[in-house]
Amino acid sequence: MAxxxxxxxxxxxxxxxxVFRAAYARVVAVAARVLGSxxxxxxxxxxxxxxxxxxxxxxxxxxxxxxxxxxxxxxNHLRSGRRxxxxxxxxxxxxxxxxxxxxxxxTLDERRRVRAALARLPRRQALALxxxxxxxxxxxxxxxxxxxxxxxxxxxxxxxxALRKELSHHASPE
Length: 174
Prior knowledge:
Blueprint: E1 2-3, E2 12-13, H1 16-35, H2 38-53, H3 62-91, H4 102-120, H5 123-133, H6 138-145, H7 149-169
Antiparallel strand pairs: 1-2
Helix pairs in contact: 1-2, 1-3, 2-3, 3-4, 3-5, 3-6, 5-7, 6-7
């Protein structure tokens, strides 16, 4: 049953609050795994739950749907952020992040490299990696991506291999 709100285009699900309370932490964790920022992950979670609230996804399918939606949305943010950063470099806009400790710079650079490589992977591989490394079980990843549970390990291993190739292909010359 949906609750109609004046001024809204689509009705909001009656079970939204219950699903939100049960799944919010996982949605943020999946998005944060991709983005590396809890603040950005919470923005993604808001988008995901808004979409879910207007959807007809059965409540029993909500956890898998929300995890995939979080990964998709976070990857889209990652890709659009990379394009924006490229435009800013061309325009001469300085990067506002300037850590003052060498270790922080190295860690930040490595995370950026991994996220950029992840964004270059085929979407299915990127999703499999993000979901599995966000703590979802093989069965949950299988349900979320429409795979057989037995094939999840293979998909994840291939995705990890593709990620390693991307990282070595785009390694900075030193």
